[in-house]
Amino acid sequence: MAAPTLGRRGRGAAGLWGGLRRAPRPPPPSPLRRRAHEQPRRARGAGGLLAALCERGLFQEVFPAQSAEEQLPGLLEPGRPPLTAYCGFDPTADSLHVGHLLPVMALLHFQRAGHNVVAVVGGATARLGDPSGRQRAREPPPPAERVRAQARALRAGLGRLFENHRELFGAAGGERLGRAALLDNARWLGRQPLLGFLGGAGGRLRMGTLLSRQSCQARLRSPEGMSLAEFLYPALQAYDFLHLHRHHGCRIQLGGADQMGNIMSGYELVTRMTGTDVFGITVPLITSTTGDKLGKTAGNAVWLNRDKTSPFELYQFFVRQQDNIVEKYLKLFTFLPLEEIDHIMEMHAKEPEKWGPQKRLAAEVTKLVHGREGLESAKRCTKALYHSSMEALEAMSDQELQELFRQAPSAELMLEPGMNILDLCRKANAIPDGPSGYQKIADGGVSVNGIRVTNPETVLVLGQHILKNGVSFLRIGKKNYYIIKWLQL
Questions:
Q1: Of 167, 240, 382, 420, which has the fewest CB atoms closer than 10 Å, so is most exposed?
Q2: 270 near 278, Cβ under 8 Å?
Q3: How far apart are CA 42 and CA 339, in angstroms?
Q4: What is the pTM of this model?
Q5: How far is residue 215's CA from residue 219's CA, in Å, rounded to a whole number?
């Protein structure tokens, strides 16, 4: 649900916490924000967790704003018992994507400061569909077994992120990481009797509040309307917060900026049923250059599962970020200290042709998502494709070859005595028959293993045109690649 616009000081946070939106007349800086600007950066640690994450741009809104400002800094002070924060991820596909990374980063920053975190896969709520930020209903939910399979895949993906973070990044200042748990809300919602839910949690949620949500109003006014299942989605997500508060001590819910309405419902349910002060924090949504939210529905997802988006493709996505966004992304998607990011950008101003910030951003994200081996794989593929490195080509595994040339045609050929470049191109169906294909080679339009060949009669040589791993990479023009696998060499 799109975050509602709430004018009163106690019901909104954009001005108070310095979210990404600007109010026409910003209120005076809050004590929290004044402390953030008065402290030297190097002095900010776990005690200044919220201020530091605000400075990185990772937090957009908090709820309820006044209570959060008064209580959260003290609750997060070093030496206090750790808090527990959670974030939910509905398995609408079998992989996380780049749009999920910011909520994960928020969880990891809490964990690095010694707090406990819970990542919840919505194996139950995914069967209803979140109406937040949508003008029309989702497609009918997939069969239950597919939802369960997708939930397992998301848990595995989240587990890899937490493990890579633990192994390769450690905690801030050498402190011990907080505990991390991976749960599926099907474990408790799937066992909750309908009448028990309606008579318990359902009796504490007010219809007027749910109906007043901006996205609910928009959907109710639309010709398609809103289904009962979608209307109940915020109530089920609110019950997640209640369950996690009772059984895991959760006091903070994290979510994307479009989740503020659902977070508010959870806050209301927990406080009414337990009397405990809890809090919600949203992170900004990542959008494309055209303003579309990055995700599965928009058709522009960059997946975090290697089978769907390779480490090389993920690396290239971040390497291609423009100068006007790369500093922001370094703050959002990496754990680099702000002083180091400043230095990287200063060096970039002196040597922009080296693309230093983009390469560092791509390396940090790829290492978090795919581990050290995934980063090395991305670098090998980059050298092979863009720097014509024979060593990188020969070092590539079969998996890397398939990932790098995912869309490239492939052919299996037998090496015959006297076979030349013209024979190779024709057998691979890479050039047309007749004089035009011959001329294509003579004009320099063909490269083998990154080396341009201009003589069609050149005989193929092992170690030059055929690599040690029994593969040749044929490029026709600038973008047309062919993979040749040689048999019985």
A1: 167
A2: yes
A3: 8
A4: 0.81
A5: 6
